[in-house]
Every structure is written in C-alpha cells, then in structure tokens.
Amino acid sequence: MNIFRLIGDLSHLFAILILLLKIWKTRSCAGISGRSQILFALVFATRYLDLFTHFISLYNTLMKIFYLCSSFGTIYLMYVKFKATYDRNHDTFRVEFLLIPVAILSLIFNHEFDVLEILWTFSIYLESVAILPQLFMVSKTGEAESITSHYLFALGAYRGLYILNWIYRYYTEGFFDLIAVIAGIVQTVLYCDFFYLYITKVLKGKRLT
Amino acid sequence: DEAEEVKDEL
Asked: Would you call B9 and A5 a contact, using CB atoms and an 8 Å cutoff?
C-alpha cells in the first residue's frame, strides 16, 4: 500500500458515497445513468469473486464488500425506490456495444485462460469504459448538477491515482500488470475532457454545461 | 504448481 493507492481507493469510496448521498438526500436520481451503474455493479461482481477464494487483508475484504453492496444499493435506489425520478429517456447508450467487445477482448488478452482470471480481465476492461453511458447522458442533456460533477471527478481521479500507484510499484517492487495499466490509462483518458471542464467551470462555481 | 499471483488491488 502506498499513498497513491490509498488516496485512489478513498477517492473511489468518496465517489460512491456522494452518489448514494445525493440520491438519498434529494430523493432523486435525475442526471445519473442507471446503465453506467449496472455496468459498475457487473464490474465489482465479476472482479471480487476472489472474496471466496483468497483472503488478502481485512482492508481489502471490507472495501470489496462495500463496493459490492453500495453499487447494488445504488441500483436499488434508481430502479426501485426512486424509479419515478430516473431519467430513462436520456439514458440511451447501447451497452451491448461495450459488453460484447469487452467480453471478446477478455477471452483473447488475459493472463491465463481460467474462469476467474477471464472474469477478472473482463471486469478490468469493462471498468475502463463503464462511465461512457454517464458521459453520454451528460453530453446529451448538455449539463450536470455540481454534485454529479464532483462524483465524476472523484471517480476519474481514482484510476488516475492508480496509475501513479503502478509507476511507484514498478520502481519499488518490480510489479507490473500490463492489462490493468493499459485499461487504467484508457479509463483515465476518457475522463480528460471532463476534468478540463470540471477545473475550468465547476470549481469556479459555474454549472457544467 | 507455480505460485498463483494474488491480486491485492481493488
């Protein structure tokens, strides 16, 4: 564990929490892509199957359980409890355009042709593009509430910090995971345009439009 | 059997 990894994890945790709190406090999930949330839940469900096979640390186990519960909780709030506020007319990104290529890629480019390993690879590739329905929704409606912008910033910052963590681990431990690094770079690049808007607009108190 | 790589990242 190094500082980049820790802040990255905390940023991820913070992103999930502000999304849940936003939905809970405003009793509304307007502006949030349910499709991205389903993809994230699928990412956690396919990646954290190792909860049943390996124990790494209490920190690792608790974080995994939190991510799993919170992502399914978010889906419950969006599709059941506050269903009426879900903006489905603007959430129209075709997720099969992500799921099918990601499934094929994970079958071809993986560390080992083994069920758990392929599912892990699938989750890494899927996570890198899972935000696209949300970004598509923001671009379609042409705006995002500040709280949604903070959520996106924290979520994007997390993988960016993981890249610093991988650079640090490469020099200190010789650790290098090509699949995670490439997917992590793709994931961070997808947020770049948003980061620019966030810094130039949202932090100056303007709405993201 | 070679040692399995344990994935400690989230």
From this structure: yes
